[in-house]
Every structure is written in structure tokens, then in C-alpha cells.
């Protein structure tokens, strides 16, 4: 295996603690990593507008967002895969019948299809996001790279059976990410690596949640945070300390990158 040349970091539970703060040790570690000539990128389920301040703070302009549906390298969009509008409409109708709210996201903003729903508020509060404005037809005039469907785990099987052209990833007990089938952070990693001329053997990925599993398996070295779900840890090549216990720096030191 080649020496790692590019490292991808998830945000929530990897760079950010439960309080949505970036540990000073992680910020310093990333600064040192870049000084050593290692390329640093972000790979997240978030929309670009949801982590703009973090990108500025870390001086990172390459990222995989929307779990792989919108990919940017050095500030330029290299890949984007919006959801099919007809499919979104059909999904919204099915969700409406079950009284399950939805949120639609493009690269600049979010819109909800119902006002003041507690499940939407609970899930987005986890991300420190305000309740989006209500625009039921937002998807008709905007490219939607990810939708959120709010339902319990026992209720999601129905949707998976009806919409095989969509990829459902649970990120919260109340919410699912909705992506085009085949969409994943792993695809985004491959796109970035190919664009920059790296092989996958030269890549490292840090993550903690279910939407990180494919990325950790695809990367040359997959690193699970100590606070990661057990299912995620089982798929990783290495487990580092929890994010709030200097997990990023510890992982990079164990890899010999710092």
C-alpha cells in the first residue's frame, strides 16, 4: 500500500463533538497535516451551506457533500447528481399519506413541506440547524441533491420497497437521508481521488456513522472514531479514540502521518 496522500474527514461525530464544536486538537492536527503536504478534504452528509464556516476555519475547499451527490475540488464542482423531480413528487405524496414530513435541500438552502413538525425540529436541532422555511414545491424549481424523510425505523421498509431508484440512509432516529440510488460518500471519494490523480490506496477516511461505512470500506485505510457505532467499527481498518478525546490527532499519529 502506498503512503497516504489524501485524508477525508466526516463532520458530525468525527470533526464535531456532540455539542457541534471542533476540538482544538483536531484543528491543530489538520493544520500540521497540511503542512506536511497531505491533502485534506471533507466527506459529509451535510449540504455545503451547512458547513461553510467550518471550511473557512480549516481552510478546506475540497469536499464531498450530500453523501456524494455534490462534489467540489479546489472550489470547483466536479460532480453533481440531483434527485429526479418526478420521483421526489411521488415520494412526497406517499409520505403525505402517512403524515411523514420532508425537507428538501439544494446546495444553498433547505425547505420543509410542513410547518412546525416536532420530528423535523428534533432532528435538525441535533445539527444546530433552524427550522427551514416552508416551501412545499421547492423541488420543482431547484435541483435537489438530498431530501430528508422523517419517520421511525420500523416505517422505512415500506419506502425502500416502493422506491428502488432511491437510496435511504438513516442518520437520526427520526430521519432518513434520501439520495439517488448508487449515491454514497464512497463514490465521492473516488471522484475526488481520480480528479486529483490519487489512487484509492493513497486515501484515508475518518468516520463514525452508518453513512460512513461504504466510505471506510472504499478508502485505502478506513478509520472509525472511538464514539462510532459498533457496526461502523467492525468495517474499519482501525479504531481511534473518541472525537472528544483527541480522536482525530490520535488516529493520524497511529497512521504515522503526524
TrEMBL record:
One of its GO terms (molecular function) is phosphatase activity. CDD domains: HAD_HPP. One of its GO terms (cellular component) is cytosol. Gene3D superfamilies: 3.30.1240.10, HAD superfamily/HAD-like. Pfam families: Hydrolase_3. It comes from the Bacteria. InterPro entries: Cof, HAD-like_sf, HAD-SF_hydro_IIB, HAD_sf. This is Cof subfamily of IIB subfamily of haloacid dehalogenase superfamily/HAD-superfamily hydrolase, subfamily IIB. The lineage of its organism: Bacteria, Bacillati, Bacillota, Bacilli, Bacillales.
Amino acid at each position: 500500500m502506498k503512503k497516504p496522500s489524501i485524508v477525508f474527514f466526516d463532520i458530525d461525530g468525527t470533526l464535531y463533538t456532540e455539542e457541534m464544536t471542533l476540538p482544538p486538537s483536531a484543528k491543530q492536527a489538520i493544520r500540521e497535516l497540511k503542512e506536511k503536504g497531505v491533502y485534506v478534504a471533507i466527506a459529509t452528509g451535510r449540504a455545503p451551506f451547512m458547513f461553510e464556516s467550518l471550511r473557512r476555519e480549516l481552510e478546506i475547499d475540497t469536499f464531498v457533500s450530500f453523501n456524494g451527490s455534490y462534489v467540489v475540488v479546489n472550489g470547483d464542482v466536479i460532480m453533481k447528481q440531483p434527485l429526479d423531480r418526478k420521483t421526489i413528487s411521488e415520494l412526497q405524496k406517499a409520505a403525505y399519506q402517512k403524515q411523514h414530513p420532508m425537507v428538501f435541500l439544494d446546495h444553498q438552502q433547505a425547505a420543509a413541506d410542513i410547518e412546525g413538525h416536532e420530528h423535523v425540529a428534533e432532528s435538525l436541532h441535533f445539527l444546530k440547524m433552524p427550522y427551514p422555511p416552508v416551501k412545499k414545491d421547492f423541488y420543482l424549481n431547484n435541483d435537489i441533491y438530498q431530501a430528508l424523510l422523517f419517520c421511525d425505523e420500523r416505517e422505512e421498509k415500506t419506502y425502500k420497497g416502493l422506491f428502488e431508484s432511491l437510496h435511504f440512509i438513516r442518520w437520526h432516529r427520526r430521519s432518513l437521508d434520501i439520495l439517488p440510488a448508487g449515491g454514497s460518500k464512497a463514490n465521492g471519494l473516488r471522484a475526488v481521488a481520480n480528479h486529483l490523480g490519487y489512487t484509492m490506496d493513497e486515501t484515508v477516511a475518518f468516520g463514525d456513522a452508518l453513512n460512513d461505512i461504504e466510505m471506510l470500506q472504499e478508502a485505502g485505510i478506513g478509520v472509525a472514531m472511538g464514539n462510532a457505532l459498533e457496526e461502523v467499527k467492525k468495517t474499519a481498518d482501525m479504531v481511534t479514540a473518541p472525537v472528544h478525546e483527541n480522536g482525530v490527532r490520535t488516529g493520524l499519529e497511529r497512521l504515522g502521518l503526524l
